[in-house]
Design a protein that fits this description.
The protein has 124 residues and is mostly beta strands. Helix content is 0%, strand content 50%. The protein is built from no helices and 11 strands. Strands 2, 4, 5, 6, 9, 10 and 11 form a 7-stranded mixed sheet that branches. A 4-stranded antiparallel sheet has the order 1-3-8-7, with no helix packed on it.
Length: 124
């Protein structure tokens, strides 16, 4: 079993930045890809970005490119989501998840383990 914990969410103003963190217990991220997803109120959960742990390759949703960046710190065994120039429409619960699929997947059903999520609220 792998347990994922997200942190770093909060209430910010439009234009601010936040960095979310995803850590794992029970296993390391080795051999997995780690993804970030989000779910806004009344909307379906959507893909944000994913990172392949062993080589650091990343894939971001087109709508997130330029503002959101996924990265990792192997020494700390953590995956980050840096979010800049936040907008009210970025308000959502942000989840990290892991998949053994190494092909930069944006498909939620391929992710086996999910965190509880962290709330990000952006005020105008």
């Amino acid at each position: 079993q792998m347990q994922l914990v997200e942190s770093g969410g909060g209430l910010v103003q439009a234009g601010d930045s936040l960095r979310l963190s995803c850590t794992a217990s029970g296993r390391t991220f080795s051999g997995y890809s780690v993804g970030w997803f989000r779910q806004a109120p009344g909307k379906e959960r959507e893909f944000v970005a994913t990172l392949r742990w062993h080589d650091g390759n990343t894939y971001h949703a087109d709508s997130m490119k330029g503002r959101f960046t996924i990265s990792s710190d192997h020494a700390k065994d953590v995956v980050y989501l840096q979010m800049n120039s936040l907008k009210p429409e970025d308000t959502a619960v942000y989840y990290c998840a892991v998949t053994p699929v190494l092909a930069m997947s944006d498909r939620q059903y391929e992710y086996d383990y999910w965190g509880q999520g962290t709330q990000v609220t952006v005020s105008s």
